[in-house]
Specification:
A hairpin with a 5-residue loop joins strand 2 and strand 3. The N terminus is likely disordered. With 345 residues, the protein is mainly alpha-helical. It has 16 helices and four strands. The strands form two sheets. A two-stranded parallel ribbon has the order 1-4. The protein has a two-stranded antiparallel sheet with strand order 2-3. The longest helix is centred in the N-terminal third of the chain and has 41 residues.
Length: 345
């Protein structure tokens, strides 16, 4: 760059093969001079042979590559992470023609980065009365809620929503909010439809214009909505789909937290969703954020499987094998119906 030799170039100076001169041979016997000349001549021949070998090797590789590219037996392969688990239209900051979108994203970012007096205690967005309702619903599931109740009163309720909850790394390390979100964010049901938890970070179609509206829908979804998710005629509720968080897999979880991980993760998920609803309604009280979210869901999420199959069929139609990662179980059924006549799925 700019004519300067690289550091490696300076550290490994080039050796030119030239005949011995008087400066080099000063003080040497005639026999020594002859030996030196012979040694250098031999070295030149060896280096020349090595160069031929290297060039021949490159030629073989290039010939093989060119022949392979021209061969009709070449396998054309592709790999694609279709990220079925990600159904959050706000996951990435996208290019949007509506200035309201940029305003919304910037305002949410400012709220999280520098909340100041907006960093209120959790109990101001998830109240004691909501905790009491949630406790009753979890107890009805047969869960032991005593430990979680102690955690609520002694810890969670007084935490600040940003600095004490959203930015608490231990909540992420223990998967207290992310694990239940993974299970209940967007649930694929029989027949190809989906059911979304009432939250900001998916394509839920209901009204989340206030914390009260959100809470009514959230309780109904988690504990009362019957979903057909498996084979046969069986149905289940989202709360029943939650699994314990194992300390063996997530060492940050204590033995006590593992024992009460079902009610603890449910409470954490409720607090997390309540905080997000509070943030977006605070920065967009007109409800414009909901309109923007639905527009993005229509463009990016709701027809994702259909668009993915179109791309596989049209853009990669001549590819011999495509490896898909993070594909939903239901996608295999859809792919088999659309591509199964020609491809093995």
């Amino acid at each position: 760059v700019d004519g300067h030799e690289s550091a490696l170039g300076m550290a490994s100076p080039r050796r030119e093969l030239v005949p011995a001169d008087e400066d080099e041979t000063n003080g040497l016997m005639d026999e020594d001079i002859k030996a030196l000349e012979h040694s250098r001549s031999k070295l030149r021949r060896q280096l020349g042979l090595c160069a031929l070998v290297v060039l021949a090797g490159v030629g073989i590789v290039l010939h093989g590559s060119l022949s392979e590219a021209a061969s009709p037996a070449t396998l054309r392969l592709a790999t694609w992470n279709i990220a079925a688990i990600n159904n959050n239209p706000f996951e990435y900051w996208i290019t949007h023609s509506d200035p309201d979108y940029n305003t919304l994203m910037a305002d949410v970012q400012a709220f999280v980065d520098a909340p100041a007096e907006r960093d209120v205690p959790v109990e101001e967005v998830f109240s004691e009365s909501r905790w009491q309702e949630l406790k009753a619903l979890m107890a009805a599931e047969g869960w032991d809620v005593d430990g979680t109740e102690a955690r609520w009163h002694e810890d969670f309720r007084s935490r600040k929503i940003i600095s004490g909850f959203l930015k608490d790394r231990s909540i992420g390390e223990k998967r207290l909010a992310s694990m239940p979100d993974r299970v209940t964010n967007t649930i694929h049901t029989r027949g190809g439809s989906v059911s979304c938890r009432p939250t900001v970070i998916n394509c839920y179609e209901g009204d989340l214009g206030s914390g009260d509206k959100w809470w009514v829908e959230w309780k109904q979804f988690m504990f009362a909505t019957q979903l057909a998710t498996g084979d046969g005629d069986s149905k289940t509720r989202p709360a029943a789909m939650l699994k314990p968080i194992k300390r063996a897999k997530y060492p940050a979880v204590s033995a006590e937290e593992e024992a009460m991980s079902l009610p603890l993760q449910t409470l954490s998920q409720a607090i997390f969703d309540a905080i997000l609803v509070h943030i977006v309604n605070s920065v967009s009280p007109s409800g414009r954020w909901q309109q923007l979210r639905q527009e993005m869901c229509d463009a990016l999420n709701r027809h994702k499987d259909t668009r993915t199959l179109e791309i596989l069929q049209q853009t990669y139609g001549t590819t011999d094998a495509v490896f898909l990662q993070e594909a939903a179980a239901s996608f295999r059924t859809s792919a088999a119906k659309r591509l199964g006549g020609r491809d093995i799925v």
